[in-house]
Amino acid sequence: MKTIINILVTMAAGMCVVSSCGGGSSSKGEFTGSSTPLSKTFADAPVAAQTVAVGSDSMIVGKLSSVPEPVTLRASDILDDVELVKLESSDEATVGQGFVWVTDKRILIYSDGVVKQFDRSGKYLGKVGAKGNGPGEYTIAPYYMDVDEKAGRIYLMQYGAKDISVYNTSGEYIESIPLAQEVNKGFFTIDNEKGTVTVAALLFHSDENPTPVWTQDMQGNVISSVFKPDITVVPDFSSEIHVGSHEKPDGFTYSLFRIDCKADTLYEYADGRFTPAFTFDFGEEVPMHYFRAFPQFFVVVTYGAPERAGERSFVLPHNTPFVIDRSTLRGAPAVVMFDNLGTLTMDSGWADGSRPDYLVWNIDPGDLLDCLEAAPESHPLATDEGMARMKELKESIAPDDNNYLLIGRWKH
């Protein structure tokens, strides 16, 4: 399909990965943030949302009369098992800023036209498939990947996918699972015991069958589906689909980044139902934005004015994400401080990611060192152990190292 304009959104699941310790942009009417960690927490934030009834269900609606002061989220409060993984530095293992998928036992990174896999310690395990036009090869970048360790399978869906490619855990192509309909961009879950695939898809106005979520068998036959024609977008691959975490094992949330800047809603999918869960009232002027759902909070991500990156492409700089606590409905722009690494802080990009259950920061060693050098030497929320680890890390980084990954699983 013809692309109207190419917007390169700086997100882990988008065209490039956030790799800076600051970066929150500021202008009148937009959420603002700080490039250094702050001492305020959600206890200081105002109530910024209310729960409203929607038929027999309810949803949370955020709205602001003014933008409150930013707050700091400590990684130890919102993430389990936060770890810094140094990827193997051999020539064949080298990666750049690219798509990252993390599972319990593996790290998959698409960089320079190929998918490389590592174990969770950073050891290089080899490639998954190859770029090309043959069976199991990807002509376009993968959009979503997953691993079933029990079944010994790696699954890959690319842009404009008509099927899901299946590999063994050595990265060798086995077969393909046909999709019930072509998926512009999408997310999937596979249940090998039941023999089912559940797909969430980004829908264009021109798509003949506007079903954002369906469950099918392994032969592509639809078992159940959701019909919702009002959440289609203009035919432009700059738009994105975002899937978030849900309390039910087979559930997930569904939201969009729309290139055409319309008011939108985050939906929950579980038990075959597709229900509204969260939205934000921006007033008359709706910015480019998307919503994410995490176990403890909802996040509103907005962007600054587009910056030209090429003849027909632009970069959208992140504003600091705005967070609304699910239980207290308090809200404020928020940065994340990785207190296990002293005062290392991520202003923007921390709410992005291709996996709904993990925060992942893929960072070049030079950029990581710059962030560590810029981090404050003290902070009310920092611990002695974290500050000592930050100092130790500064001394251990070499410019010719492979990339580092900061990984944490969202707490429930």
Structure description:
There is one protein chain. The chain is mainly β and 412 residues long. The chain is 7% helix and 44% strand. It contains 3 helices and 32 strands. It has helices at residues 75-78, 365-374, 384-396; strands spanning 6-9, 49-54, 57-63, 71-74, 79-86, 99-102, 106-111, 114-119, 124-128, 130-131, 137-138, 142-148, 153-158, 161-168, 173-183, 186-191, 196-201, 213-217, 222-226, 240-244, 252-257, 265-270, 273-281, 289-293, 297-302, 307-310, 313-316, 322-325, 331-338, 344-346, 358-363, 404-410. A 6-stranded mixed β-sheet has the order 2-3-23-22-21-20, with no helix packed on it. Strands 4, 24, 25, 28, 29 and 30 form a 6-stranded mixed β-sheet that branches. It has a 4-stranded antiparallel β-sheet with strand order 6-7-8-9, with no helix packed on it. The two termini are 40 Å apart. The relative contact order is 0.21. The model is unreliable at 1-35 (pLDDT under 50).
